Amino acid sequence: MKEYQTITEISGPLVFVETDEPIGYDEMVEIETPSGETRRGQVLEAASDHVAIQVFEGTDGIDRDSSVRFLGETLKMPVTEDLLGRVLDGSGQPIDGGPDIVPDERHDIIGSAINPTAREYPEEFIQTGVSAIDGMNTLVRGQKLPIFSASGLPHNELALQIARQATVPEEAADEDEEESEFAVVFGAMGITAEEANEFMDDFERTGALERSVVFMNLADDPAVERTITPRLVLTTAEYLAFEKDYHVLVILTDMTNYCEALREIGAAREEVPGRRGYPGYMYTDLAELYERAGRIDGREGSVTQIPILTMPGDDETHPIPDLTGYITEGQIYIDRDLQSQDISPPINVLPSLSRLMDDGIGEGLTREDHADVSDQLYAAYAEGEDLRDLVNIVGREALSESDNQYLDFAERFETEFVDQGFTTDRDIDETLDIAWDLLSMLPRSELNRIGEDLLEEYYTDDEEQEPVEATAD
What we know:
Elements: E1 3-4, E2 7-11, E3 14-18, E4 27-32, E5 38-46, E6 50-55, E7 67-74, E8 76-79, E9 87-89, E10 105-108, E11 119-120, E12 125-126, H1 131-134, E13 139-140, E14 147-149, H2 155-165, H3 170-175, E15 181-191, H4 193-206, E16 212-218, H5 223-242, E17 246-253, H6 255-268, H7 282-290, E18 294-296, E19 302-310, H8 319-327, E20 330-334, H9 336-340, E21 347-354, H10 370-394, H11 401-418, H12 428-439, H13 452-458, H14 465-472
Parallel strand pairs: 9-16, 14-19, 14-20, 15-16, 15-17, 17-19
Antiparallel strand pairs: 1-7, 2-3, 3-6, 4-5, 4-7, 5-6, 8-10, 11-18, 12-13, 18-19, 20-21
Helix pairs in contact: 5-6, 10-11, 10-12, 11-12
């Protein structure tokens, strides 16, 4: 193996080296500093006589006297079922004080694209225990459903709640053969040490760590490491899903930090920037990650993704949420106004969407009334929200009796259906029963999105409603 001492330039996380032989793109590199320390890197750009290397551990201490060795292989993740219960850093090294990982296999972190003809359509329900998601923006196995949040909002708490509570309901599991188990692969990118401690305390306290693999990239870790963390996460998830038959839920937080790392590396490479300084290839890069969710024909397991991103300046037209929305199958919005009203999780269901929901609910999957109830909840809450704007202009006294019922519905919808705290785990039956209690506030004639047979079975008249209306008159 040749050793080069021909470093010509060091720029941010990049090292430029002159070479006299072809070097492969993405090839792994070892750089030995004059002090004897070894750093790992990856070829980011290769020409006939020079290469650009991104150094995972940062370039501090590297100078022109450092030695560079090209290893002739791409970065691989050592994978084994024993990774469950382990905590790794952003480059895949154990940081939990446990034994070294003895891999069954080593997989390329870039992964292989799923052949479109081999993809199975996602249509099995995953229960998160969160009513605003399960009831109105249902997650299905193999889907990619991002959470759009903003700085200061409790997206981390929601991520932990989903990681703790997510299950495949027994009915679906029985149909699917018993050997399919549920696992969570959690990837944190650019988080603070305080956030990392909160994550780990929660995982250990609740026992969720036993069925999880956790990757931690901290804010003071090199930005370059942030670009490989989600690929290590997804490689681990694919191994557990497609070779060990697990149903794997991948949670990635925060994708905004990942995109900032792309921008930093692009600036160091002096690339022509795209929108707001982000690389022009960011759409392709994000698609490479998000499209690794799915199911494969003939395989029992599945990979489901919940990427979390914080929208800079609460701007949903920012390139990161904008491009993510194009690639993924919906979004869950965390709302600052609901957060200010102490509603948790503060999910705003009106702009939220799960494009695959209709195929993952109904009889045999959740409950036969699920679709109609969800549609009616959306309609009634939207009506109540519109009337709130009108109240600010004309006052509540000027509204009709029916309008006041919708205003009361919107209030109770937020405080009883959406607001459940970060420790309450509701199954889908409980979620739908709460929905029926709320819908029963409204006159039966207003529930025009629900079939008559379902109204007969679930609708309950509020006997106390008439006296209240009489005193209001």
